[in-house]
Fold each of these.
Amino acid sequence: MGAIGPTQVILIVLVVLLLFGGRKIPELMRGLGRGVKEFKDATQEDQKSDNDADKA
């Protein structure tokens, strides 16, 4: 089992378009972006609290 190639990516994109349609994709990507941003913020917050605890 190897890495995902360009044909697999194209197939995945086509399936997503068929399932969700063109109008729903921007909403899904916006939600995904927000989720990633919140995850990064939480990770950075956790690292800051760990660093503060180590210094104390």
Amino acid sequence: MAQAFTKAMARNIFYGGTAFFFLLFLALTFQTHSALPELDNRNALTGPQGEMIAKGKQVWEENDCIGCHTLLGEGAYFAPELGNVYKRFGSTDAIKGFIASRPKDGVPGRRSMPQFNLSEEELTAIAEFLKYVSEIKTARNWPPNTQG
């Protein structure tokens, strides 16, 4: 015969479930912290190169690039993924040339990237930032292809 579900049984299920998920949380936290050192490339953020990368991130944020592009899967999906743009273009000079060559009003008849009129320093900084991002070792090898 079926046994009635009592308060004691409910309490035991609650405490058991809480303990289980707390231990699971601790195990996953430990696993993540043990995997982080091999994914970390903070060495690139030191010295003048690091300052240029930080300036590039600032230019990225000021011009709201993430409003159209994705970066490592985060952002809007109107424009190509830029987590691998350095691999696609092959050099920072090509990235700078592409950004600088955008038409003033965009391409007529379609939504396209506008001309931001960035200085040479800002172009270099954003290109270095995108190069840095493309060299991040992601856990799932994101983005999955070089086309963006």
Amino acid sequence: MLENCLSAQERWGGVSEIIDKWLQERQELLVLYCNLSEHYEQASNETVELEVKSLCEIAVDYVSAGHFEVYDQLIKEGKEFDDKDALKQAGKLFTSIDATTEVILDFNDKYQETDDLGTIAQDLSKLGEAFSSRFEDEDKMIDVLHVAHKDQVTQ
């Protein structure tokens, strides 16, 4: 009952903070990815291995935060505002995001278990494509499930 008494700002204003923190983590992920992609050929195998493991760690953290925190909050918000169109769009976006999750987790699994960097160029390219697709879909999801209700939240 108390939840029903809270204003929209009190209930959904915190979602922006969760999203901001998550997007900051995305930026860190991109910096690691770009640095590694730009210099892996010139760096020692030991340096590349360490950077790949760091990339894997933050990528898994980022994916986990999305699936277990951010998306749940976005869906709750869409349901609270009874935004059926946005929820339908989100369902389609989830399908695409799930495909990128598999690519990211496959990269992680491979490079957590081996120090063989023979296919790192191809794997980084595939990972970059997955990141690009995922970030575009996540941005759309934020737009339709959170930004679309911004005016209602601040009332």
